[in-house]
Amino acid sequence: MAAVLELIAGSYEQIAFGYRVKTDEKEWTTKADFTHHAHTASISAVAASERFVVTGSKDETIQLYDMKKRIEHGALLHHDGTITCLEFYGTSHLLSGGEDGLLCVWSTKKWECLKSIKAHKGHVTSLSVHPSGKLALSVGTDKTLRTWNLINGRSAFIKNIKENAHIVRWSPDGDKYVVVANDKIDIYDLETASVTGTVTNPKRISSVKFLNNAILAVAGDDEIVRLCDMGKEKWVCEFKAHETRVKAVDSFNMEDFCVMVTASNDGLIKMWKLHLNEELEPPTLLGEVNTTARLTCLAVWKPSSVQQTAEEPASEATTSTSAELARELSKTKRVRIATEEVILEDESKPKQKKKGGGKRNVQQ
Predict the structure, then answer these.
(1) pTM, full prediction
(2) Burial class of residue 38 (count of CB atoms within 10 Å of its CB; 0-12, 13-18, 19+)
(3) Average pLDDT over all residues of the chain
(4) DSSP character string of 332-351
(5) Dist CA 101 CA 12 (whole Å)
(6) N vs C: which end of the chain shows fewer Cβ within 10 Å?
(7) Which residues pair with 359 in a beta bridge?
């Protein structure tokens, strides 16, 4: 049975592209679905939920696109500076980070900024929400890795790292995470919050994606995509994906194989078929599309890809160590980030009302 999915890419040319993918043939084909030219500067981040696609830009705005109604849905105005990272948690919340050091939590119901926190002294360069919804990780240009408890909205702990990391990602089952600085990947264990291994890429890393809990796809400043075995802490497969550097990588699972999607400066988006067996073979090309633009970021939209069961948050979470956080996380599988529970405030400073903390140009 054919899957319904769409490739979403952002570009230096300020345009977001959407391509509908036809998956019922041996070679997958794409059809241009929309171009969204709502930004006045290059697009720096993109994310997709079951209903919405959001793009962040150097123009300091987050633009919304409603995939159900196929219309522009307005803009979110809260950050000062480039939007550096966007990530949905299920269908209910969006988290954003920017060069202003803010980490913001948005409700997708009314697109309100529920709370924002001054997360880093420098830029927020990357964020990642734990699969349970209880924790978020962020890294910034202040050389820190910060863990946020989303149950009580407090900083759980801060780890000083020697370099400015630019990517952080949880593994799918949430027992480990990776922190990327330049060409180096540090693998962390959740329970100890310590580095269990390090892998070095030949070039600076631009994007990483967990294909499953064991295999991490890594793209960087060359045309090669490499696959790393997290347990063995070594490269197990590599292949030439593009003619120029690969800017972004994403993936999703079909019934019996994994599909890896890559986007490059050469304007191409490619889909690769990969069997995640013990002996990894290089993937085969399923299909490609030439956007003719210089691509910067990538996301896959699937209308039913994020089905989450939600439970009420734990009442009083006062976790302060990584071991306590690990125990807390093991209690429930899924947690809704409830509006009244998210109290993300920088308590060391008096509360100040941020300019333009809401939304404009809402389509009814």
Answers:
(1) 0.85
(2) buried
(3) 85
(4) -S-----GGG-----TTS--
(5) 23
(6) C
(7) 76
